[in-house]
Amino acid sequence: MPERGTVTLADVAALAGVSLATASRALNGSARKVRQESVDRVHAAALELRYTANVQAQAVARGTTTTLALVVGDIADPYFAAIAAGAIKAADEAGLVVTITSTGGDAGREAEVLAVVAGLRPRAVVLAVSRRLGNDADLGASVSRLVAAGAGVSALVSDLDGAVAGVPGVQPLVIRNLSGAAALAGALAELGHDSFAVLAGDPDLVTAHARVEGFVAGLAAHGLRVPDECIVTSEFSRDGGHQAMTTLLDRAASGAASLPRCVFAVTDLMAVGALAAIRERGLVPGVDVGVAGFDDVRMLADVVPAISTVRLPLEEIGARAVRRALGVEADGAVDGEVVLRASTAR
Amino acid sequence: MPERGTVTLADVAALAGVSLATASRALNGSARKVRQESVDRVHAAALELRYTANVQAQAVARGTTTTLALVVGDIADPYFAAIAAGAIKAADEAGLVVTITSTGGDAGREAEVLAVVAGLRPRAVVLAVSRRLGNDADLGASVSRLVAAGAGVSALVSDLDGAVAGVPGVQPLVIRNLSGAAALAGALAELGHDSFAVLAGDPDLVTAHARVEGFVAGLAAHGLRVPDECIVTSEFSRDGGHQAMTTLLDRAASGAASLPRCVFAVTDLMAVGALAAIRERGLVPGVDVGVAGFDDVRMLADVVPAISTVRLPLEEIGARAVRRALGVEADGAVDGEVVLRASTAR
DNA sequence: CTGAAAGCGCTAACAC
DNA sequence: GTGTTAGCGCTTTCAG
Fold first, then answer.
1. Which of A156, A270, B32, B217 is the most buried (most CB within 10 A)?
2. pLDDT, greater one: A257 or B108
3. Rounded to a whole number, what is the distance in Å from the CA of B221 to chain A's nearest CA?
């Protein structure tokens, strides 16, 4: 029984009665031609032996891998999960296997993770991480090492693209958070909303920052503004949204300030938290105070009231990012689409 | 400038003035001892050259990889995403890189995907896919090939575990859907509910099937039963839940049957769909008709009314699955925990 | 403790 | 067309 440990190409070649080289050529479309009969014999042998080529060995021999590395902040986050889904699909279509590493949102781990990724010698890498303002230097360094090692790199960045976009060899896919948020602001203004607050999340996050900037700018274009004290920061999460909204509510309750009639949360998750906070005070979200989010997280479609938001084609973004990294996609920008729903009905 | 293309161990050895062998031994804890001075010189050289070992080459030489393959149904599904997150974390702790492949829920693609996975020669593989009743034979074949190739395999299965659990070398992690659903049924019965329906999802899915069975059995233990016509099948999705619930509602409206006062959806997503359907008819979910789900999807925590469910520690499940595949976890079963909330308040 | 050399499984010139 | 023979980058005996 030849079924012992692992079957190698040599085993197949032997069984087929051809040389290693011929077997290799028969099993994958090499440039060289192989007589049909040999091809058949080799295939038969491979099948009989249940041979599966060792990808690692092929990579070493060829000097190039079939791996696409995807680095995400947190795969459990629906935002990244959706991007990952799109990326996996596109990579699959390109015959690449996706390797996912997670930074856990920890900027410190980022360098470490990228070092591991570099060891993989991926054909391309897609970076879908939560960038923080400032610490772009080291990221830039790690990334240029990847590029030097031959990997095409695509990064998903916000409008405020820092280091990465500047590194040669990087094909950024920029998500236009700025203009998306501005468009949302405009739409809300046209709905007649005129008193706003922003649940800004973590101001150090590039994404959050850009959305706040965009929203404020969009409002300004309509002659409206958000008082500084109405831009409240918190964690970039459901609970952060809940907490920030509670702060606003508390302030109004104590008479320290009036309650804004419309609140923009920089992500749907925060918007959901805000909804809960509003409800806890006995107010009706969407009526007493409007709430808008960003991303259009699918899973939140049934939240009541339905959340007005800026829809981002997440899966498509993932797919386009891999295509960019592979160098087959020219367009490097993605726009969000404003979707008005019941949460800001007035 | 040595920074050209890729830096190899030979470059490092040369710069450090030692042999290839010594450099190799210095860079990773080989059994053999290396003089401290040499170690330092090698490390210095590696640092200077920005050397990163080629993982593939190491794999070929060592005959073993540092890859853990995770096969999921659909990474965009929060259920799988959570499992993936836990798996990635645990793999990371074991020094393994995770490769994710998605079957897209397509049983046909499964064999294909597993062939690719086999080529990766992963140290271990975790199968987190939606199994269908019946077609276990081929899966079993593919899996035993993986096992033969030296991979530890862990599969997440329901109580109704078919082929996989039987394949030698497989360390199944069984999720006790049956008893979880039974416990939920019991809890609802004790709450006083006495008229039930089940939104069964796709009856061919092992998971859905087990949950229905368990629920029915749990009810039976309390002397209650679900009329056959009240077990309605549909897609295993949010929309499926909506549609199935609508069917029930229609029936009641036409006087063909009375409306069950409590509905069990085999997954939270379906429960959400059911909530929406109930609301569309002007009824109040949680009051006019109770709804319970399964999984306790985190993202759905803010849905109103809060959904009673069976909580599954998804991330932990992912982590344990990799530990099982690695052979370091003995316990092969996971229990869900019944969580009663407003949706079944009565 | 260190180096030379033989692989690991496969590919790619380079001959025949 | 097909076989021979170098490698790919790294690990690991086996001698010093």
1. A270
2. A257
3. 34
